[in-house]
Write a sequence for this structure.
């Protein structure tokens, strides 16, 4: 049985914002992460504010500029199956189809996937760790197999989202509604690096609700991809994942954006890989150079050096796949 | 035949069958009245009035906000086909259909199931007869202990409603949200393929 809480399901966004701003309130969308967090007492909730009654936050629609608007309550399964996304933003469809299990994809939402809590086994387990307000990160000197190799700073938990890295690579933005109005920020700036604040995952303030993800119109020759490696072939979180977005112009890579999952507290942008590819043809020697560049800057912990090799191999395979089209 | 006639001579099995029969009769009803008036903020421990439509039948219930759909199905409605395994979205034993697609009842609040069509394994019966997916699982020995089976069957039912003639890989992926600790996976895949044929009237 879950700990007790009160529950409200407002019918307007304004009411949802007002209620979500109260102390002890948590937003319920798909619930697949929230209920697990409540059960594990990762967080406590006095009130759940369910936003599932806000039908305006659901669905996929073309944007005026030729991009695509995805309501925050759109399910991961809907994202994975959408023909426009599969055709024009293939990396996002690939990421969505690799999230969790069929049942969880039918229930989990895109907004929730971006706002989920880390899966660090200390954080989810019975440890009063730094991210939960304690004194230390137990992974730093402990069982660090699933932890960060980039940007770790006091906390080494990694962000579990598959959609966030590819949305960041595609240059997507999120709309955030709050009491003071709405703001729009790049997905890249939604999540908080460990070095900035190891005790919060997103820049959302109490009472703010992520309402929409907006994809820019696809540039000519845009190719995107996402693939993660897991301990098992399905249903698991990324050990390492690679999100790529680039334009191929006469066989030459332009506007290369590379974001990694499973390696940092945020989707980890890797400028070294981007530099190794930009303005170059995606041939074997360039791909090999990008794979070498991938390891640069990695700072593995005691038990996760394998992630560096995994990243290099995955980078090679994914670039070869993208080059083949 | 009215429901009263059926329920007069109730055995537990008869009751479950009745629930299954009801599915066809009332499936066409519109949104429930509960949709129109969402619950107000409740204090801790307060009960919410909900109307849950399960296997075609409407149930008016008082639920605690923290009760999951799985808890209500099993402990309030007596529909014990759906099983509690991990109760954290990691095993699939509690799989039910919500508006025709498989979801974990353990990760769904009962309050959130309002206004949706819930189908449990009991709802797949055709009178006293097993439905095609149930029949295929029995014929192919697609279980050992059987604990995960209702969830497996509901995952298969959901898969086949969306993809009536799946290939082998589609079956494996479609069933990947359900764990069988006895390891009956090979037979499960065969059963789902057989069920696809049965559902399409392929016989055998």
């Amino acid at each position: 049985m879950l700990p007790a809480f009160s529950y409200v399901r407002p019918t307007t966004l304004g009411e949802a914002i007002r209620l979500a701003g109260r102390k002890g309130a948590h937003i319920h969308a798909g619930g697949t992460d929230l209920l697990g967090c409540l059960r594990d007492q990762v967080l406590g909730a006095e009130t759940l504010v369910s936003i599932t009654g806000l039908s305006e936050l659901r669905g996929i629609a073309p944007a005026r500029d030729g991009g695509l608007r995805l309501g925050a309550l759109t399910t991961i399964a809907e994202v994975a199956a959408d023909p426009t996304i599969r055709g024009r933003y293939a990396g996002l469809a690939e990421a969505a189809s690799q999230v969790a299990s069929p049942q969880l994809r039918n229930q989990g939402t895109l907004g929730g996937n971006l706002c989920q809590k880390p899966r660090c086994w200390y954080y989810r387990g019975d440890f009063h760790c730094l991210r939960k307000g304690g004194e230390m990160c137990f992974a730093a000197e402990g069982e660090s197999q699933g932890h960060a190799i980039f940007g770790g700073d006091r906390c080494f938990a990694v962000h579990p989202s598959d959609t966030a890295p590819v949305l960041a690579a595609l240059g997507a933005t999120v709309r955030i509604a709050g009491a003071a109005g709405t703001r729009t920020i790049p997905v890249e700036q939604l999540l908080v690096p460990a070095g900035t604040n190891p005790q919060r995952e997103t820049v959302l303030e109490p009472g703010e609700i992520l309402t929409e993800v907006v994809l820019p119109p696809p540039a000519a020759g845009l190719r995107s991809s996402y693939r993660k490696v897991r301990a098992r072939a399905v249903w698991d979180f990324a050990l390492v994942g690679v999100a790529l977005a680039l334009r191929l112009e006469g066989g030459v890579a332009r506007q290369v954006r590379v974001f990694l999952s499973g390696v940092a507290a945020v989707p980890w942008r890797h400028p070294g890989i981007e530099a190794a590819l930009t303005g170059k043809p995606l041939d074997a020697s360039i791909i090999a150079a990008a794979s070498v560049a991938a390891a640069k800057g990695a700072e593995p912990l005691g038990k996760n050096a394998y992630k560096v090799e995994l990243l290099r191999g995955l980078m090679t395979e994914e670039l070869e796949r993208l080059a083949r089209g | 035949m009215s429901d009263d006639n059926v329920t007069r001579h109730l055995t537990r099995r008869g009751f479950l069958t009745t629930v299954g029969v009801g599915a066809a009769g009332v499936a066409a009803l519109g949104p429930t009245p509960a949709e129109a008036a969402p619950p107000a903020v409740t204090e801790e421990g307060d009960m919410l009035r909900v109307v849950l439509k399960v296997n075609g039948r409407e149930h008016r219930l008082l639920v605690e906000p923290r009760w999951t759909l799985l808890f209500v199905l099993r402990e309030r409605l007596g529909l014990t086909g759906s099983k509690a395994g991990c109760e954290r979205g990691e095993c699939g034993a509690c799989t039910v259909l919500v508006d025709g697609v498989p979801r974990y009842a353990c990760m769904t609040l009962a309050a959130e199931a309002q206004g949706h069509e819930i189908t449990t394994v009991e709802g797949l019966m055709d009178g006293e007869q097993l439905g095609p997916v149930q029949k295929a699982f029995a014929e192919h020995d697609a279980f050992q202990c059987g604990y995960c089976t209702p969830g497996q069957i509901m995952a298969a039912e959901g898969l086949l409603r969306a993809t009536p003639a799946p290939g082998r890989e589609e079956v494996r992926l479609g069933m990947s949200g359900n764990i069988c600790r006895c390891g009956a996976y090979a037979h499960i895949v065969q059963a789902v393929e057989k069920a696809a044929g049965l559902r399409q009237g392929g016989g055998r």
